[in-house]
Amino acid sequence: MLKLEKRPQPSQLWIYLTPLIAVLATMAAGSVLFAFLGKDPVVAIRTIFWDPLFSEFAFYYRPQLLVKGAPLVLIAIGLSLGFRAGIWNIGAEGQYIIGALTGAGVGLAFYPLDAWFVFPLMVIAGALGGWAWAMIPALLKVRFGTNEILVSLMLVYVAEQLLASMSLGLMKNPEGRGFPGSRNLQHYESAHNAELITGTGMHWGVVAAFIAVITAYVLLNRHILGYHIRLTGQAPRAARFAGVVPARLVLFCLGTAGALAGLAGMFEVAGPAGQVSIDFNVGYGFTAIIVAFLGRLHPVGILLAGALLALTYIGGEIAQSQLGLPAAAIQLFQGMLLFFLLAIDVMTNYRLAWQRREVA
Amino acid sequence: MQLKTILTTAAMALGLATTAMAQDPTKVGFVYVGPVGDGGWTYEHNQARLAVEEEFGDKVETVFVESVPEGPDAERVMTQMALDGADLIFTTSFGYMDPTINVAKKFPDVKFEHATGYKRADNVSTYGARFYEGRAVQGHIAGSMTESNTVGYIGSYPIPEVIRGINSAFIHARKVNPDVEFKIVWAYTWFDPAKEADAAKVLIEQGADVILQHTDSTAPHAAAQNAGGVITFGQASDMAEYKPKPRVSSIIDNWAPYYIERTRAVMEGTWESTDTWDGIGAGMVEIGEITDAVPEDVKAEALALKDRIGSGEYHPFTGPINKQDGSEWLAEGETAEDGTLLGMDFYVEGITGKIPQ
């Protein structure tokens, strides 16, 4: 009889193998799905994974990978710190929105002043906005022991309402003929998060994402705080004996995640999106949770996972327009990725063993 | 080399390639904000896409991407279509305005058509429909049919398009029923069956026996059917599955004639940047069948109103009309200018409640 047997130690091999197998399994199951939809599965998989990187128009898609992947990586890095310590911030989407609002708010307040300090101030405001929004669940947890999962998630909906209200009221473009949405920051040079080198997709948000990856790597491997984070996740009791103050860790992890999500929102609103609008948020905060786990909560893994998810988004769009695949099929495909990851993850902590039925 | 130059060169190379091979079909792209199965706004745009295919057969090739978020994703989808050789791209949501203009700059040889916006360029046209004309007919039926004198209205977003519809419906409901009141709920979504159903239920609980909606799902119809004794109107699409009651009529967006005409213009090389705002007269706005749940005389009046609007004999915004604060907007016999209508951000006199700011 086949039986799952708990491993004494999580398997190092499977930790690295799981994401790869999950991707392959997703491709296989996706092929079946696409075949049932009457599309050539090989062409579909090639369109999603190969075309954005190597097709005729890859010169356009490759920079887009950075644009799409940067906010995912930036947010996921922040989330991973908390996730490692068992602090579950599910509300990055809300922190992303608030960061965009505070960042854009500062920019719009200075309009049309042409000065070098406008953009740096927006960056600070964006980070502070996201940080402050994440402090709500953090302080409630520390002070009253509330569940940060619920509070941070609920605050996403509050943030969405604030976003709508800002787009329709305070931040509405006075020259927008009554339509909702702020001025387009792309047309306000001092506030525009433009491409640093034209045609590369590289904007300050991408730079920030890379810096976050490196910083998180150093923090986790070389710094006592990173050690505390890892220790708390693996052995909370031992962590307390080692002198970790749980409250301080909660404030740090949620605060950092909030600040990074806020930065991502600010870079997005000042750059690729350009304006505060009712539908500004498109789910980066939630997708980043997938990215964090797909990347094994490891900074480098997150970088790769962010790139992979960005690839499925962009490839998915190409597949929609070239092959006529429905959007739902692409979303299903992305969902399968997390599903297989979690399913195969069992192998990290368990192994398959044959067990003979014992004779009585 | 700058990206713009690269893209332009690529686009021109493609453009030349297409002209060189005269047999190549004209490629038309469509960017949709919702799923094609929403049964409302996007569904009708997709029907028009199919009509284009039917009209031109293999002389045309259409592509579409659905559920595209407004913002950088839209910009990428449009760019991708243009790179793939689209000759004409319809971007069918207001939020695609700035992305459309951005992409159009990079592809001067590709024509763009943006729905409901106001920014144009040499290769960007805008188009929209005078849905407020249809709202007038709805308002007339609503005002005549309500017994509780309470009409519920599910608004999507407080933007001029929606406010115009509310005002038009209200004016014509009051004309036949001076006691009628409108209760307006903002759903802050174009398509969310759960939210729309909730909004409908709240309105019905507050005594509304007519529900008008400016959101795209059929959920309010289902809610009305469950409540019983409540009538509704199809929005964007006929929503005929709820006939003859609760759905007693509908406003149908008919984009097909416009899409066919514009595609033909591209094929014949006569395409020019224009601003189109058509209504019942041009067939862009249709009134779906008025069912037998509506009394014969009300139906006849509604159809007569529709015909008078269609022929241009009557404008739904004809004075005297005051603004909500009591100040005069239109004098006796004066009709509203398009500019005012396009930027409408006020309620007319008699509507209670405030436009969310």
UniProtKB/TrEMBL annotation, chain A:
GO CC list: plasma membrane
Record flagged with keyword Methyltransferase: no
Origin superkingdom: Bacteria
Main localisation: membrane
Membrane topology of this protein: Multi-pass membrane protein
GO molecular function, one term: transmembrane transporter activity
Alphabetical keyword list: Cell membrane, Membrane, Transmembrane, Transmembrane helix
One protein family per Pfam: BPD_transp_2
CDD domains xrefs: TM_PBP1_transp_TpRbsC_like (cd06580)
Keyword Nucleotide-binding part of the UniProt annotation: no
InterPro entries with a match to the protein in the record: ABC_transp_permease
Compartments in which it is found: Cell membrane
Transmembrane portions of the chain: 12-37, 65-83, 95-113, 119-140, 149-171, 202-220, 241-264, 284-311, 323-344
Protein name: ABC transporter permease
